[in-house]
Design brief:
Blueprint lengths: L7 H13 L1 H9 L10 E6 L4 E6 L2 E2 L7 H7 L3 E6 L8 E4 H17 L7 E5 L4 H13 L2 E4 L6 H11 L3 E5 L1 E4 L2 E4 L1 H9 L6 E5 L13 E3 H5 L11 E2 L3 E7 L7 E6 H16 L6 E4 L6 H13 L3 E5 L10 H8 L4 E4 L1 H8 L16 E5 L5 H11 L6 E4 L33 E4 L11 E7 L9 E2 L3 H9 L6 E9 L5 E6 L3 E4 L2 E4 H9 L4 E11 L3 E10 L6 H15 L8 E5 L12 H8 L16 H9 L3
Parallel strand pairs: 4-17, 6-7, 6-8, 8-11, 11-12, 16-17, 16-18, 18-19, 19-20, 29-30
Antiparallel strand pairs: 1-2, 3-13, 4-5, 9-10, 14-15, 15-23, 21-22, 22-24, 24-25, 26-27, 28-29
Helix pairs in contact: 1-2, 4-5, 6-7, 9-10, 12-13
The protein binds 5'-O-[(S)-ethoxy(hydroxy)phosphoryl]adenosine.
Length: 632
């Protein structure tokens, strides 16, 4: 496979080249793709606006680079292997040709419903091949997809529909997750009562659960594709045309619609995929993420398929019907690269080694981690017991906004160090800065992680809110992209990510803005004010700890706590449900009225020996009460 770096000196050479001549570097990689018209300039940029354009005036369609480019040589090769939730149900394998035909057919179905280039389409679906088909069909037409994780509530779904003025929703009747069948279509129905831009809904039959179909608006997937052609002329896209919007939580306000465009995203996801995982052409690759997150976009669908890889998609959960399910799937499909999240590792580690015993793991060549810092204990367990001590473990740091992996070992090529994402990929220029934005060079330094030069798959804007994009990412340190993460360069020169430095909590690898959770809590009629912080959690990495000032009239504390948790679950989704709720009579505030989260974080983390000076607070007396209330 071209552009695959295979030696440490090769890495050093490519890295050097990518910094000295970034346009030549990325231009060369881009040349291996199919462009209907070549670009006339590789890069235009400034980080002040910000305004970043890669492959100016290049014309292409990303799905032609997945299908037409591969069909002659690998039409019969499996593109997607789908493992259903229930192990007794049959695996489905779609070859590149079959996936192409289904994508074209579905693109035709969407066009028949009036979808044209530029329209926004919401995908709210379980982990089935049709979710990938839906994304690819949008890309084929030039419609902009926005996948919403199927665990989000109807309110969250409605907010996203409204924000991007979507015209169509692609969904399913239900979703099999472990022992449960979750309702999906009914959530969409509720969301559509709170929004009015949606003209049609296409519903995939998956669980067979009864649903209401609104005449003239709702249509069955299988009926819509019937008899339609399985070829489709792909739309011509500009390199900078929008490919998708993906909503993610930030430290303030409502979720942000991160915008990714076509050409740069294609080049960057492909390049990072083959290099980080050292993918070889007959490998079976498995990423356990959900397509509702960026990892599912870049490393289940686009990156692997652009590389002509076989990508495995799993519908279920790691512990159903038994806690060895992941390991069973690795053996069953002879998985060569396995990519998962630290939270899953820790959850499975808690079952001990017995669930691993029946399996051989002998197909595995590379294992990977993403979503949050992986603690050393989980790193070693994963490395020793899953990787059997002989698979490189790639700890991949990146973000929804970066589109592709930024900092990671290249499996077996660059060194592996426990709990260190390690080195930047070629083409990526991360730096560590101090509070004033001065670059900290050399080893043994710690500060905020920024990126000083553009990369092809970076976000271009926040949908409809360019100013917010500028404020959030490009204003803290002028001239730099600020990640929101802290990082350390250790004495060997390897980067270690220290976690968020803003008000974002990373729960099981999912980003939650504290402000968003507080807003949801405040919707409860008895809540007067609330403050949410993260605290260390054995399995989730971070848990959500909420402090709430409430009117207790007519409620017991226990009732109220349950109601608050349910309110959040209903408004955002079960993933945002606070792990702990503490009812308090006041929140520690500065004289200017700002909540002192530092103190709340310390109490939540049970670190009360060093609370710092609390005497300057407006209400120092509440601190003791809060500590007592927390049982410390
Ligand atoms: C965190 C997920 C440490 C980080 C791809 C980042 C990580 C946020 C790692 C992005 C890692 C992701 N080590 N921290 N290997 N990977 N993070 O947008 O705080 O869901 O800012 O993207 O996850 O989360 P997001």
């Amino acid at each position: 496979m071209s552009h695959k770096i295979q030696t440490l000196s090769g890495y050093l050479h490519e890295y050097q080249k990518s910094v000295l001549q970034p346009e030549e570097f990325w231009g060369k990689i881009a040349e291996s793709f199919h462009w209907r018209k070549k670009w006339d300039k590789v890069l235009d940029w400034n980080f002040d606006e910000p305004d970043v354009k890669w492959f100016r005036n290049g014309k292409l369609n990303i799905t032609e680079n997945i299908f037409e480019r591969h069909l002659y040589t690998m039409g019969d090769k499996p593109a997607i292997i789908w493992e259903p939730n229930d192990p007794n149900e049959e695996t489905v394998t779609l070859t590149y040709r079959e996936l192409y035909e289904k994508t074209c057919q579905f693109a035709n179905a969407m066009e028949a419903k009036g979808i044209v280039k530029g329209d926004r389409v919401i995908i709210y679906m379980p982990m089935v091949p049709e979710a990938a088909i839906a994304m690819l069909a949008c890309a084929r037409i030039g419609a902009v997809h926005s996948v919403v994780f199927a665990g989000f509530s109807s309110t969250s779904l409605a907010d996203r529909i409204v924000d991007c003025e979507a015209k169509m929703v692609l969904t399913s009747d239900g979703n099999f997750r472990g022992a449960k069948a979750i309702e999906v279509k009914s959530v969409v129905d509720e969301a559509l009562e709170k929004s009015n831009s949606i003209e049609s809904v296409i519903v995939l039959k998956r669980t067979g659960t009864p649903v209401t179909m609104k005449e003239g608006r709702d249509f069955w997937w299988h009926e819509e594709v019937e008899g339609l052609s399985s070829t489709h002329q792909a739309a011509e896209m500009d390199a900078e045309d929008m490919l998708f919007i993906l909503y993610t939580s930030g430290s303030t306000g409502k979720p942000k619609g991160v915008v990714h465009t076509t050409g740069g995203y294609m080049v960057n996801t492909y390049y990072s995929f083959v290099n980080v995982f050292q993918y070889s052409i007959d490998d079976v690759y498995w990423c356990t993420a959900d397509v509702g997150w960026i990892t599912g976009h870049s490393y289940i669908v686009y990156g692997p398929l652009l590389a002509g890889a076989t990508t495995l998609m799993f519908e279920g959960v790691p512990t159903f019907p038994h806690p060895g399910r992941f390991w069973e799937i690795i053996d069953k499909h002879k998985v060569n690269q396995f990519y998962t999240a630290p939270t899953a590792i820790r959850a499975l580690q808690a079952f001990g080694l017995e669930p691993l015993e029946p399996y051989r793991f002998d197909s595995l060549k590379v294992i990977g981690s993403v979503g949050e810092p992986i603690n050393e204990e989980a790193w070693h367990w994963y490395h020793d017991h899953v990787g059997k001590g002989n698979c490189p473990l790639v700890d991949t740091w990146w973000q929804t906004e970066t589109g592709a992996i930024m900092i990671s070992a290249l499996a077996g090529v660059t060194p592996n160090k426990p709990a260190h994402a390690s080195l930047p990929l070629p083409g990526i220029q991360p730096i560590i800065v101090d509070a004033e934005g001065n670059e900290l060079t050399g080893n043994n330094v710690e500060g905020n992680l920024c990126v000083k030069f553009p990369w092809p798959s970076m976000l271009r804007t926040i949908y409809g809110e360019h100013e917010r994009c500028k404020q959030t990412y490009f204003s803290t340190y002028p001239g730099l992209y600020f990640t929101g993460d802290g990082a350390k360069r250790d004495h060997d020169g390897y980067l270690r990510i220290l976690g968020r430095v803003d008000d974002v909590i990373n729960v099981s690898g999912h980003r939650m803005g504290t402000a968003e959770v507080e807003n949801a809590i405040n919707e409860h009629p008895k809540v007067i004010e609330s403050a949410v912080v993260g605290y260390p959690h054995d399995i989730k990495g971070q848990g959500i700890y909420a402090y709430a000032i409430c009117n207790m009239e007519g409620r017991t504390e226990e009732n109220l706590i349950n109601e608050i948790r349910e309110t959040v679950s209903k408004i955002i989704g079960p993933i945002a449900k606070p792990d702990k709720v503490q009812i308090v009579s006041g929140l520690p505030k500065t004289r200017s009225g700002k909540i002192m989260r530092r103190i709340l974080r310390k109490v939540a983390s049970k670190e009360i020996s060093n609370l710092g000076d609390t005497s300057t607070l407006l209400n120092p007396e509440v601190v003791d009460e809060i500590i007592k209330g927390a049982g410390l």
